[in-house]
């Protein structure tokens, strides 16, 4: 296992980049601690796979350095970095048994057979595949194939980091929760440094202790799942994480405060910064129907079981609220109240309020 440091990292697929728009990865500085569980989360094209390929050694960055435990590995090939990767499609040998698939990475490195047998038995027990050890991999279901692919990454005890690149994409939805739980359990048992790349917020938030949210080649926030939900540092984080995502509403900053649709809105604290495009961010969980507040007309009500999502129009702007209990009718006139402690101002997308003391 290793601490991983990315220092002043940038990458462009163009030979002569002329500006930020030519970089797939804009400047990134990150430290991932030894034994941590991390996720790279963002939409397709945001730079997740590029960053993963740079860490693994499949790609040399245009600028910056990669360090494993303070050792510079930027120019080292993958086989000299002691990494393991689990890909979107299971990488196993269909003609081999499960036992031989798990043993292959060790045999390939000349490990003695007694150690191989012990290690394979240990990993098989962790994965709950002991009864499958003598079955050919070609006869396995997709979720079990991915389990074996994970096991091949974990069977070596000399790896610096195990990286997962969208490993559950091809798994049936009803089986994904089982593999997510198993992967979390495996991390807690082996305490290897793990990096999980995904565009699925549920996968990232249930696996990782720290989530790195990326957009357009930039890291916009690093935090725990709770921090990302409770206090998004950027409107993209608020919109991307949560279902439904954060309400991002046009705002006007005046000497008297912050206004939305001509009405003053109480925020979590003092406004910082000046200029730029200003917006209010408040999650639907912190918007409620009230006796007084912003006048609105209900446009849509979606009952999702434990609660409902009410979409109401404040002037020409839609606002979503998560509501429990009695629901308004479509077209009803209502009032919306924002919880001040979770209502914030954003300036050009970035958080621009301070927490009240």
TrEMBL record:
GO molecular function: ABC-type ferric iron transporter activity; ATP binding; ATP hydrolysis activity
Gene3D superfamilies linked: 2.40.50.100, Nucleic acid-binding proteins (2.40.50.140), P-loop containing nucleotide triphosphate hydrolases (3.40.50.300)
Keyword field: ATP-binding, Cell membrane, Membrane, Nucleotide-binding, Transport
Pfam families in UniProt: ABC_tran, OB_MalK
Top-rank taxon, per record: Bacteria
InterPro entries (alphabetical): AAA+_ATPase, ABC_transporter-like_ATP-bd, ABC_transpr_FbpC, ABC_transpr_MalK/UgpC-like, Mo/tungstate-bd_C_term_dom, NA-bd_OB-fold, OB_MalK-like, P-loop_NTPase
CDD domains in the cross-refs: ABC_Carb_Solutes_like
SMART domains: AAA (SM00382)
Domain ABC transporter: residue ranges: 4-241
Signal peptide stretch: none
Record's GO cellular component terms: ATP-binding cassette (ABC) transporter complex, substrate-binding subunit-containing
Recorded family membership: Belongs to the ABC transporter superfamily.
Record-given protein name: ABC transporter ATP-binding protein
Taxonomic source organism: Tateyamaria omphalii
